[in-house]
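Hi C.,

You asked whether I'd gotten around to modeling the 613-residue construct. I have! Everything is below, sequence then structure, no commentary in between.
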Amino acid sequence: MTTESADPKGATNDETDNTKEAEEGDQDVTITKFGSVTVKRNAPKPTATPGLALDWTKLGKPDDDDDDQHPEMPLRYPHDVTDDLQLTPDEIVLVGTAGLKITHLGNNFSNTCTDPHKLQRLVFRSHMIHKMEGLAASNSPAGNNDLNATQAPKANKTKQSETLQQQTKTATTIMTTESADPKGTTNDETDNTKEATEDVTITKFGSVSVKRSTPKPAADLPLDWTKLGKPDDDDDDNQHPEMPLRFPHDVTDNLQLTPDEIVLVGTAGLKITHLGNNLSNTCTDPHKLQRLVFRSHMIHKMEGLAAFTNLELLELYDNQIEELADLEVFASTLRTLDMSYNVIREISPVSCCENLTELYLANNKIKTMTGISTLTKLRKIDLGANRIRVIEELSNLIHLEELWLGKNKIEMIQGLETLTKLRRLDVQSNRLTTVENLETQLDTLEELYLAHNGINDEGASQPTGLALKFPNLIVLDLSRNELTSCNPFTHLESLEELWISGNKIESFDDVEPLKQPKANGTSNAISLETVYLEYNPVAKEFEYRKRLAEWIPSLKQIDATMIGGVHHTTAGSGGFGGTGNNKGILLGAAPTKEYLQKLQDAAIQRAKAENSE
């Protein structure tokens, strides 16, 4: 690139190179030619210090081991950056920006101040200052030393002058090289290059070399435990990020506290990554071990379990295990298996554990229930928070009492025909629109959780679903659905807790089916103790809780508020001394005048009785 400031009309015959011309007598315009096209721009103003051609953002800081030997760089003092350094008598504040960074304070720094002895606050932030100098005249706690900058050694000035000349020469060389070769290929290595040695890395900026310490090799445990992510959902190749190895014996020396049990819960910095094939060597007698628990670690593989032939409980909760393995070793003795919060995709290997009574596989990546049909002794199974779409493989599980399938992708309740002992069923947070196929559970079902689905009044009133009487049903959760009234529940006589918050129940007319007694004078046998109606439009009604308590006298709790029920007392019974039918207080409501009068009368009677004694 060639700059022609002497001849504003001169033009090069080579139209492939960009050329710049400065018009004679006009120092504020630069002309750039692209072939036959001429572009005029305002020429950039020169820097305060001549020859400062180096990029400030590329100048590295000095090496920690370098004894005040800094890479050669242009000199820039406070007065080179601004003419108004001191805006107030007691303060100097100058924050560095790109291209306006100070490199030296200078020994004559105090000459820029109106009165250095009155200066109280001195701020130079975000610059490239390497040395504290020129502060002797400032009003510091150490004292007021008046040092005339003109008395500085002449040698320092000479050295600074020589350095400035050298920098100007270096910058000019770089600019000339770039102009001579527009493609950027020079023999002077103007691009940034790095030379790695054993302990030092040298970075070159033109003729400027910056030395830095080469990063030391990583320690044995270089990774931050909190940053180790679980494997990618789409990664089926069992490829894990490189991580340190940590075995049980690396975490504790007392792994087995009792002959039949090992329990080790991971904490920050003390998480196991591998069980190891010699895990049994840490046990007094592995054949006597009955309970093995490694919770909240970073174990990826089930290994080293072959010697534990009598395990009854195996818990590897909250790890990163991808595959069930080695279960056949203790298949005949295992009663409880907890592998929740892992990344397991298939549960078919569990089919060999025919004596299992409890199986926990919540929060994994399971898509089907294939493999559990042989577990005929199961009483409880938790497959919540997976990717299951169809309820299946349950026909042989005739002893099952609890089935937890919340937070899956299930669209219909089915496959429960043989579960005659089922007491708890959880299918909340699925894709249900109807409640059906529960005839077999008519006499056994105690708790039914259906929250966070798309069930409306019609879906909740199906003949094979909630239209049945369910004489033992105590808890029903239909929160966050599409209900518009309480009609589907009026026949559930045993119901104690009804959760229907977050639906579309508009007014008290929609709640009236729960009223005791009913409007027609007939008795309503339902005896609710807890009802949740919050986040329905009706909850915004005036004295909503008070009215509910009057309508349903059996209530003890409305939403999260405990209330007082109806009390019957007689004289001499230790109550209020009244004749009975004294209503209790609804928490949050003001007590009546009659109630307060009875409290006062009762207190007077107790005081008289004490005095007479």
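If it helps when you're writing up: The first helix runs from residue 78 to 81.

Thanks,
B.
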